[in-house]
Specification:
Layout (H helix, E strand, L loop, with lengths): L15 H28 L9 H31 L3 H27 L7 H8 L2 H34 L2 H14 L11 H13 L15 E2 L18 E7 L18 H7 L3 E3 L2 E2 L5 H10 L20 H7 L3 E6 L8 H7 L4 E3 L24 H11 L7 E6 L12 H14 L4 H9 L1 H21 L8 E7 L19 E4 L7 E3 L3 E2 L3 H10 L9 E2 L17 E4 L8 E4 L2 E4 L2 E5 L5 E3 L3 H23 L20 H5 L1
Parallel strand pairs: 2-7, 2-8, 3-10, 4-11, 5-6, 5-7
Antiparallel strand pairs: 1-12, 3-9, 8-9, 13-14, 14-15, 15-16, 16-17
Helix pairs in contact: 1-2, 1-3, 1-5, 2-3, 2-6, 3-5, 12-15, 13-15
Length: 646
């Protein structure tokens, strides 16, 4: 490192002393950002205090991050300073400031979305943050960080001498950093940029490839799942099926174990008359990615199945039931072209597609947000439109609904009336302090849940007047747990309810079997195939194996979980949950406890690694099923605009 401080002219060559002052200023700015994070989380009701153990751990982790960054930037400083006196300090100061701004943006995303950004960040960031919000954050961050950085650099000149004599203390700090390498890292106490860098590195240098001998590794003989049959008194005619996938409907809102009780009164009453799964998971943390899991028990690919560049051959409930004389429909109030969902439905030969292009002027769109964008038509308008278009048919029906009202920005119709209902529930329900505070801070979220529940009640009242109601099976679930509220743990975003309601049910029942969206198709088709002329291929490639099994856990059951694009870091095997490399044991209510079983951890990691390799291989290479098992001839080109209108 350059130690010479004299140069010709007025420029003084900067020394290690000056560089260390930059490092100290950088660290102090990180401490300020840590305080900002905890203040925001405290105000939102997420944490109980500002000065917590997590804050101390975060600061300690910042020490390690500062040491790491300082080590790398020191070489830049030394090289440039050797070329031109004073320039090295200026360049490295800009580098430190740039890193602080990135860390600040990542913290802002975290305190706004309760999620730490990892691989696939661009898609996630763009989907959660508007350009206006980004510009506003930068306008605040840049001057704030620049001012603090300059201030701390000036202040450190006065205390540098004291710190430079504290050599033994630096050993303590370094030892503390080494200890944090094996410490319990959580999103709240991690340096956000360090996590992002590690996540991207893992993704970029992931050379995990499928090298097995089987050309179609997911393909297996079809074994009928008749576990639902004892629960039904089926008629002679094939039943209608109605799937309702409610945006963001998590287990936090429904049932006796709900954290936020009272906001789904209709669903709470309906689950008492239904088959209700108490331990049920969505396989995806993003709404669009949940649909192929529910309708086809399909793998994710790298960016969600519908976003795969090619369209792999598959066997979904749409295709199988269409081949068995069902009339099929998909109903959505938003834009079905997003994430290429319309293309997926077209390839499934769905008979009727209703999206935002199919509503007339008599239907009211959801209010526009600050950017002038409307998500589409709210839930009540969606159900109303379907009911008005509904027609009697001599064919059984498969109708799928995908809602959007319980999605950010939560601009539901009659918003003020539903906000008043939230206040009323707060005054009547006995709720713990933390959930109560979160409800008060996020009333618009809970108002949207109330609206979605009310819309479902209206839909069921209307549907009950249809002649074929008595022979209809309703499957209701959530796309994923609402991520606009903080999760209790890493499994929280996947916990959703599953209700199967029908006049054909013998009696209601609560089912504790751990199941997921991937298990729906095998069980529903198994129920139909056991009594009706429903032709199912002799070989299938479904990831799920059925909704009901003995006990809570099946030791052979694997439940892959995709948090968001390019991020399949969560995985359930039996009664163990792997998340970000950490292993947890699951109890009978899916609560997590740390697991210290190294052999089990290694086996679960191997299962997870193998699934990721197979998932990428089968989707990228069209190796889910062979061509001989396809239900429809594969389309050679994308559908035209005329064809997409239907």
């Amino acid at each position: 490192m350059q130690q010479v401080s004299k140069t010709s002219g007025n420029n003084r060559r900067m020394t290690l002393r000056d560089f260390i002052r930059l490092i100290m200023a950088f660290f102090l700015c990180l401490v300020v950002l840590s305080l900002y994070q905890n203040i925001r989380l405290y105000i939102a009701g997420v944490i109980d205090g500002i000065f917590t153990k997590s804050l101390l751990l975060l600061i300690v982790h910042h020490i390690g991050f500062t040491a790491l960054i300082g080590l790398f930037i020191a070489f830049v400083f030394n090289y440039i300073e050797g070329k031109k006196a004073g320039l090295g300090l200026k360049v490295t100061a800009v580098l430190f400031l740039f890193i602080l701004i990135i860390e600040g943006l990542l913290i802002e995303f975290y305190v706004s979305n309760y999620e730490i950004l990892g691989a696939g960040l661009l898609e996630v960031y763009n989907s959660r943050t508007t350009v206006t919000a980004l510009i506003f954050s930068l306008l605040l961050l840049i001057p704030a960080m620049a001012g603090l950085f300059f201030l701390f650099y000036k202040v450190t000149a006065k205390i540098y001498g004291t710190i430079s004599r504290m050599y033994p203390f630096t050993i303590v700090l370094f030892s503390l950093f080494l200890a944090t390498l094996t410490s319990d890292k959580k999103p709240v106490n991690e340096n956000k940029l360090q996590y992002l860098a590690y996540s991207i590195a893992d993704d970029v240098f992931d050379f995990n490839k499928y090298v097995g001998e089987e050309e179609y590794p997911l393909l297996h003989s079809y074994v009928p799942d008749k576990s639902l049959l004892p629960h039904f008194n089926l008629m002679e005619e094939k039943p209608n099926l109605v799937f309702i996938v409610v945006e963001g409907l998590g287990s936090d809102f429904v049932g006796n174990r709900a954290i936020y009780r009272g906001f789904t009164p209709f669903l709470d009453s309906l689950q008492e008359e239904s088959l209700y799964w108490t331990n049920y998971l969505s396989n995806a943390g993003e709404s669009y990615a949940a649909l192929p899991c529910i309708l086809g028990s399909l793998p994710f690919g790298e960016k969600g199945f519908t976003n795969s560049s090619d369209s792999p051959a598959r066997q979904t409930i749409y295709g199988i039931l269409k081949k068995s004389n069902y009339t099929t429909s998909f109903n959505y109030g938003g834009n079905s072209a997003l994430n290429h969902l319309d293309k997926f439905l077209y390839e499934e030969r769905v008979d009727f597609l209703l999206d935002n292009k199919g509503f007339g002027s008599e239907y009211l769109k959801q209010e526009e947000d600050a950017a002038g964008i409307s998500l589409g038509y709210p839930d009540k308008e969606l159900y109303k439109k379907w009911q008005e278009d509904h027609f009697s048919s001599d064919k059984p029906r498969l109708d799928v609904f995908f809602t959007l009202s319980s999605k950010k920005p939560f601009l539901i119709p009659q918003r003020e009336a539903y906000l008043l209902k939230v206040d009323k529930i707060l005054s009547q329900e006995e709720m713990a302090a933390r959930p109560s505070k979160l409800v008060r801070k996020n009333k618009e979220v809970f108002a949207s849940i109330l609206y979605a529940d009310s819309a479902l009640k209206s839909f069921f009242s209307s549907y009950a007047r249809n002649a074929d109601y008595a022979n209809t099976i309703f499957i209701i679930t959530g796309s994923h747990n609402l991520t606009d509220l903080p999760m209790e743990d890493n499994l929280g975003r996947y916990r959703v309810p599953l209700l199967i309601y029908s006049p054909l049910l013998k009696k209601p029942a609560k089912i504790s079997s751990l199941a997921s969206h991937l298990d729906v198709v095998p069980s529903i088709l198994g129920l139909l195939e056991s009594r009706y002329d429903v032709t199912i291929p002799k070989e299938v490639a479904w990831l799920g194996n059925g909704l009901i099994h003995k006990g809570v856990f099946d030791s052979t059951k694997k439940v892959p979980l995709m948090r968001h694009n390019s991020n399949i870091q969560d995985f359930v095997k039996g009664n163990h949950f792997l998340s970000g490399g950490d292993l947890y044991s699951l109890d009978s209510e899916l609560n997590l406890t740390d697991s210290d079983a190294p052999i089990v951890k290694q086996k679960v990691k191997e299962n997870h690694k193998f699934f990721k390799a197979v998932n990428k291989y089968v989707v990228n290479n069209d190796k889910i099923i062979p061509a001989s098992l396809t239900l429809f001839a594969q389309l050679k080109s994308d559908p035209s605009k005329e064809e997409m209108v239907w």
